[in-house]
Amino acid sequence: MREQRLIQSSIVSPISDLSHYRLGSYYIRGYLKGALSKGFDPEEILEMADIPSSVYTDPTASINGEQLQRLILKIRAIMNDHYMGFLQVPGKIAMDVEAGKASIEGETLGQSLRHLNAFVNAVRSDEERTLTVEDSSGQCSMCFHFTGFNEDVDTHLAYWYRLYWGYKFYCWLIGERIQLTEVCFSGPQPKDCIAYETVFDCPVMFDQPDNKLCFDSKYLIKSAFRNSTDLSNDSFPLVYPNANWFTIPSNYLNLASQVERLIIDLLKEGTQVASITVVSGILAVSTRTLTRRLNQEGKSFQQIKSKIRSDIAKDLLVNSDITLSQISEKIGFSEQGDFTRAFIGWADQTPSSYRIEHMK
After folding, report:
1. Are 319 and 234 contained in the same domain?
2. pLDDT less than 50: residues of the chain
3. Is 211 helix (H, G, I), strand (E, B) or coil?
4. Are 299 and 253 in contact (CB under 8 A)?
5. Would you say 296 and 229 are in contact if contact means Cβ atoms under 8 Å apart?
């Protein structure tokens, strides 16, 4: 019998080399500076984050990745500002939530990033995000630019926080670690910074024109399978207080994604699009339980099945020369007419028209 394929709700995929990393006074005092300027007591914030308050005044003190995670989340929460006082105009946590909702509307990472950038650029005049793709090299860049900094804040820390937070979020969206090719900062390298080449696992450049993450554009077509349920539970490690700041989320799959990948695996093994009875049997749950849990994630088995059929049909129409009848049979339609009607619902055009248009 096929082994059970339910994947546990693991939220971590840490970089093992960073488990021992410590961050010194430069990071501790730097991230508390915005709160201090707004009248908050930094030592009280540290205690609320379950960190000894003495690290604020001890120049030799350091904190680990778990403590940094708690500190950043506590500063954000107590100030209701996901910019943590770096910018003159606060960014309410509710805006961060809405930005997350905008990003999960995309079906691919590229679509998600464009939705997210459009949202942020529309509601903020002091933060600009730009996604660029170089056709010649196949590389893409996510650029971040801030204006309107508060006085005396360390702008490098604002960019490091934004780039690393963004990077972790993008990995979470597609469920795998994105291999960066380069990270750039516009300012000079701080003398007390940790080894960013290890943190980002790629070359890191300073005194550059832009603050950006660079990676292969192949990641832009990766499926972004997260949904609103994922944003609000413990699988979203960016807001999970017990996570490690250096954790790169990659291996968690919600149930809808497990079902989707299972159906695709079965198709690769020569099985036609599996029924809910077959899938629930492999996952060792009843069809009723599977339906209920998918509903909790805002999905249905039929939606998942239709998406897979649509994706496979479109791929075969563009990247193969097999007949419409063969495509129809491959994705489980007994009649070509039924396939044609379904495809019109997916793409607002017939399979033949789609093939002609996209093979130009």
Report:
1. no
2. 1-16
3. strand
4. no
5. yes
Q: How far apart are CA 68 and CA 218, in angstroms?
A: 32
CATH number at residue 353: 1.10.10.60
DSSP state string for 298-330: T--HHHHHHHHHHHHHHHHHHH----HHHHHHH
C-alpha to C-alpha distance for 263 and 257, rounded to whole angstroms:
10
Angle ∠(187,190,193) on CA atoms, nearest 5: 125
The proportion of the chain whose per-residue pLDDT surpasses 90, expressed as a percent, equals 56
DSSP assignment of 82-127 equals: TTTTSBSS---HHHHHHHHHHHTT-SBHHHHHHHHHHHHHHH-SSE
Give the model's pLDDT for residue 11: 35
CA–CA distance, 346 with 333 (Å, rounded to integer):
15
The vertex-176 CA angle with 219 and 101, nearest 5°, equals 80
Asked if residue 248 belongs to a domain, the reply is: no
What would the pLDDT profile of 150-183 be if each residue is shown by its tens digit?
999 999 999 999 999 999 999 988 888 899 999 9
267 contacts 279 by C-beta, under 8 angstroms = no
Q: Which of 214, 239, 264 is the last residue before a domain boundary?
A: 239
Using alpha carbons, select from 204, 220, 212 the residue that is nearest to residue 143: 212
Looking at the fold, whether 185 and 291 belong to one and the same domain comes out as no
Distance CA 125, CA 107 (A): 27
Cα 354 to Cα 307, 334, 342, distances in angstroms: 16, 21, 13
pTM over 0.90: no
169 CB burial (10 A radius; 0-12, 13-18, 19+): buried
